[in-house]
Amino acid sequence: MNRNDLRRVDLNLLVIFEALMFERNLTRVAEKLFMGQPAVSAALARLRDLFDDPLLLRNGRGMEPTARALDILKEIQPALDTISGAVSRAKDFDPSTSTDVFRIGLSDDAEFGLLPPLLTQLREEAPGIIVVVRRANYLLLPALLASGEISVGVSYTTDLPANAKRKKLRDIGCKVLRGDARPGPLTLDEYCARPHAMVSFSGDLSGNIDLDLAKVGRARKVVLAVPQFNGLRALLAGTELIATVPDYAACALVEGCALRADDPPFPINEAELSMVWSGVHDNDPAERWLRARISQFMSQALDVAP
Fold first, then answer.
1. Of 127 and 76, which is predicted with more confidence?
2. For residues 27-65, b (16+ Cβ closer than 10 Å) or e, as one string?
3. For domain 101-172+271-298, which CATH number applies: 3.40.190.10, 3.30.1360.20, 3.40.50.720, 3.40.47.10?
4. Class of 174-262 in CATH
5. CATH architecture of the domain with residue range 5-89
6. DSSP string for 54-66
7. Eight-state DSSP code of residue 123
8. Has residue 47 got a pLDDT over 80?
9. Which of 220, 222, 214, 244 is nearest to 232 (CA)?
10. For residue 88, what pLDDT is reported?
11. pLDDT band at 1, cuts 50/70/90?
12. Residue 305: pLDDT above 50?
């Protein structure tokens, strides 16, 4: 196909094709791209004609891409990234007048403990922007970045897409939350004897804290796992339950209530809270402004009331 032939190719079709490859569901693509499902079905028919391939085939209750579709995705995605980056860099960015939509992925601890001051500053500088927050963790971040559903994420991270970039924001220190009225910090024996609550996105009853406890020959008993941090305040108040949480989440949880936060009675290896983003957006003026604000506010040390 020469450049003149490219005039008959609708770039919107390629954007829909990319979304179809990731979502593999017409309804979800319609919701993601703010289209009607009949329009997505029509676009898929045009794509099948353009590439002379079924692209998506029914497999039980779902849909699976053909081998040819996956090959096309490998070729098209870098080109779409390049086009998107070139268009973004061509725009000036003025936060005071911007109406851009920013899509951010945040782990639950970052959303609960660190988003409020960040959002306040963003709204002061850029009152017209829209911020869309997606729940993300180290398992979800790679796919959200690769699909373009978020442009930047903040979480503990492991494996990332090949074109992703990462910046360490801070070490994740820990505090022990408690809602009882007894004075003084917990000893290691008391810590291990008390029932524990933990925040677990996957529903697991153990985590890195248990590995650190095992290094000193001890263990704890988790009796409650919840999917997010905002419920801990009510769950711990006036009970023997304790929870070991990131220091910035503890800072938000103890504010204005009877909970208090102690230092843990044993060494805990600190993980890293990182900001990650797609290389496509590396030089985008708007995204650079957003990342600068995230770095500024999420890197700050927080004072946690004892």
1. 127
2. eebbebbebeeeebeebbeebeebbebebbeeeeeebeb
3. 3.40.190.10
4. alpha beta
5. Orthogonal Bundle (1.10)
6. --EEEETTEEEE-
7. H
8. yes
9. 244
10. 60
11. low
12. no
What's the whole-model pTM score? Answer: 0.67
- CB neighbours (10 Å) of residue 235? 14
Main-chain dihedrals φ then ψ at residue 43, nearest 5 degrees: -65, -40
> Taking Cα atoms as reference points, which of 85, 82, 81, 122 lies closest to residue 102?
122
Confidence of residue 290 (pLDDT cuts 50, 70, 90): very high
CB 178 within 8 A of CB 262: yes
Decide if 74 contacts 209 (C-beta within 8 A).
no
- Cβ atoms of residues 249 and 170 within 8 Å: no
Whether the CB-CB separation of 236 and 198 falls below 8 Å is answered with no
pLDDT tens-digit readout, 128-176: 999 999 988 888 888 888 888 899 999 988 877 777 889 999 888 999 9
CA distances to 72, 125, 131, 152 from 289, in Å: 33, 10, 14, 12
